[in-house]
Amino acid sequence: MSPAVDAELEKIQNFEGKYPKQLWYLFLSEMWERFSFYGMRGMLTIFMTDKLLLTEKEANLQYGATQAFVYTLAFVGGLFADKILGFRKSIFWGGFLMILGSFILAYDPVNLFYWGISFTIIGTGFFKPNISTMVGQLYRQGDTRKDAGFGLFYSGINIGALFGGALCVDIGKHHSWNAAFSLAGIVMTISLLIFIFTKRTLGPIGLSPIRLKFTPKKIKMIDLAVYLGSLLVIPAIFVLVKNTKYTDLFMYTVGPLTLLYILYEMTQMNKKDREKMVAALIFIIFSIFFWAFFEQAGGSLNLFAAHNLTDNVLGIKIDPNVINNSSNSAFVIMFSPIVGLLWLWLAKRKMEPNTTVKFGLGFMFLAGAFYVFYLTRFYTDGHGIASLNVFTVAYLVITIGELCLSPIGLSIMTSLSPQRLHGVMMGMWFLASAYGQYAAGILGAGMAPINDKASLSEKLISYTDGYKQLAIYGLVSGIVLILISKLVKKLMHEVH
Ligand code: GLN
Fold it and tell me: Is the CA virtual torsion 76, 81, 82, 83 positive or negative?
């Protein structure tokens, strides 16, 4: 980097106070993007079973596939950003594709469903990891304010998810699906406009890594090739989501290949950097399991909510799918500052758990939450309709688990990897989500009643049996993490 560029970056990273001002812009842009994303996510299984007339099993699998591709392409999006486009152009292109996808769905959701979804999948891949990486780059290596920055950013994610998750499904179910998908498109446009109007404050952060290597004309050609290439992938995504057996093949190949690539990169590093990458990989692998359970939210829990729950929380009438889609986000917004303060309070007393123990705690809460989902079967009206209050408590518990793991995961991806791999590692973090989502679909389909004409009581038993199993696996994972925490701490060196 030139000295002028260095100085500009230093000026950003030397910010005073708790948060850099650029964080607020990225926060807003991500907030609207997540509104659109979670709005869509919350509609998928309901739309698939109600309008596309898929069985619950098929809906679970196709839902898992769409989400798996979203996050797999986040890895690809991170890679292209690191090597060619830079974060800014990637975000622009991704946002643009997401807008197109939403409006395709708004135009004709039944007939163009898989086309619209394919555009948004590719778009999210370019957008999502890169905005998170830019947050990481606002901080100098070792700046202790970074975790708090990601905590705030995570609240932005969830404010968007809260309103998107609640409004879209409500409009779709009770008014019009076209309007619900249009809303997703409109808010995504707001997200992109915010990014476009504020990106000049980012100094050199997110510029293309090849901008000094080639002539502007050549760079335009290369960019164009990436854009065209990504458009060509859309029909492939279309086929893969529709035929989930191809998804299996794709998932079996992509993970091992990316792992090989990371291992190759690791052979080029010194021992200390390599060990830090090993620690990052351990977190990434555990997070796969976390998301596989957690992401029942958009799949099996959404269907469970649609059929097996009352519409009453603490005496207030509310659609159970709205609770399913939004309570998690509402709890993140409420509890994220409290959990942040708790870590600080513990840190002052030299009692703050290290990252691995926090991950372990994340799993313990996850296990507790699934146990509460299981318990819903004991709070019913006798005809298979269970208490929405108990279900909401489970979301509270799962959220505490998420806060022990997810924002911290984002933050350490940029702390544990060298700068030239920031985008890829953030992509790897999301790739773990992809595998989680994929497994979530399979797990959800396994829990779904075999017979779609099953009675409500049979459905209740079928899903809650599955949740009990997940509680046990979650508990075991948490214990393993806590047992290996000393070893991982060593691998992380000074990062904690
Ligand atoms: N809820 C977070 C987000 O939307 C984490 C998602 C994930 O990594 N699976 O960014």
Answer: positive
- Supply 13's token pair: 């990273």
Ligand 1: which residue has its CA nearest to atom 6? 433
Q: What is the pLDDT of residue 423?
A: 85
Give the distance (Å) from ligand 1 centre to CA of residue 131: 13
8 Å CB contact between 320 and 297: no
Contact 440, 289 (CB under 8 A): no
Measuring CA to CA, which residue among 406, 384, 391, 373 is closest to residue 460?
A: 384
Question: What is d(CA 464, CA 357) in angstroms, rounded to the nearest whole number?
Answer: 28
Tell me the backbone φ, ψ of residue 316, rounded to 5 degrees.
-100, 135
Distance separating alpha carbons of residues 87 and 188, to the nearest angstrom: 18
Asked if 156 and 28 touch (Cβ cutoff 8 Å), the reply is yes
Mutate to test the pocket of ligand 1, among 406, 411, 425 (most ligand atoms within 8 A of CB): 406
Distance of CA 443 from the midpoint of ligand 1 (Å): 19
Domains of the chain by start residue, with CATH:
20-492 (1.20.1250.20)
Interhelix angle 422-447/388-415, rounded to 10 degrees, is 150
Under DSSP, the state recorded for 202 is: G
In angstroms, what is the span from residue 440 Cα to ligand 1's centroid? Answer: 14
- Rounded alpha-carbon distances, angstroms, from residue 131 to 9, 150, 159: 17, 11, 16
pLDDT in tens, 405-457: 998 998 899 899 998 888 889 889 999 998 998 898 889 888 888 777 889 99
pTM of the model: 0.87
Which residue(s) pair with 313 in the sheet?
A: 316
pLDDT recorded at residue 7: 87
pLDDT of residue 244: 83
Tell me the two tokens of residue 332. 């993140």
Query: Which atom of ligand 1 lies nearest, measured to the CA of 37?
Result: 4
Ligand 1: residues within 6 Å at CB? 34, 157, 291, 406, 430, 433
Of 251, 221, 335, 296, which is closest to residue 474 (Cα–Cα)?
296
CA of 464 to the centre of ligand 1 (A): 24
DSSP 82: I
- CB-based contacts of 238: which residues, under 8 Å, 6+ apart? 114, 115, 118
